[in-house]
Amino acid sequence: MDDEIIELLEEMTDEWRDELDQLDSLTQSCPELELECMIKKETLEEVIRKVDSIINEFVVIE
Fold first, then answer.
1. d(CA 41, CA 23)
2. Angle at 53 between CA 1 and CA 20, to 5 degrees
3. 56 near 1, Cβ under 8 Å?
4. CA 61 from chain center: how many Å?
């Protein structure tokens, strides 16, 4: 995989991790949003795992 694509994917996962942190803060400040935030966090975590897996596969291949 092209290094630029890998770098872009890594930047995206970093942004998603930042969003996870923001969701944690939001949950603490607005408990009524806990369920919605939890669902979004689970989705983001799954996407991050999948993208990390793709990155790792292509890094190993190269």
1. 7
2. 115
3. no
4. 23
Residue (of 61, 60, 58, 53) closest to 13 by Cα position = 53
| Tokens found for residue 56 | 């790792």
Per residue in 10-44, pLDDT (tens digit) is 999 999 999 999 998 988 898 898 999 999 999 99
Q: How far apart are CA 4 and CA 36, in angstroms?
A: 34
pTM summary value: 0.79
DSSP letter for 43, please: H
Provide the angle, in degrees to the nearest 10, between the axes of the packed helices 3-29 and 34-61.
160
